[in-house]
Design goal:
The chain has helices spanning 2-7, 19-22, 56-69; strands at 8-11, 14-17, 42-47, 70-78, 92-96, 99-103. The protein has 105 residues and is an alpha+beta fold. Strands 3-4-6-5 form a 4-stranded mixed sheet. Strands 1-2 form a two-stranded antiparallel sheet. Helix 3 (56-69) links the parallel strand 3 (42-47) and strand 4.
Length: 105
Amino acid sequence: ITLLVKYFTKDGDQWRLKDDIRSMVQYKVMNLLDPFTGMGSFDIVYCRNVLIYFDDNSRKSVVDYFYHALQSGGYLYLGHSEAVSRISTAYKVRRLGPHIVYCKE
């Protein structure tokens, strides 16, 4: 709860990211099937419940794009019904609490 209060403010029954943190975030519209060139690198990529709508070739492309966009030690978070292990061996599977995540070592 300490991190929640540090980075978020209560807004009714929801939590809102504080403005000083929001100012560090860039929001962009993009197509996951296009290479992520010019976007920099990421510590974390959240792509929950999206890959289930792609065919196998498209899933592989997107997961590869994520891998190249992640910094070493970065994490990819997917939905519960999505798995990288059958389409890419580049990631190391990690368990963080109850969650399965994929790490670029």
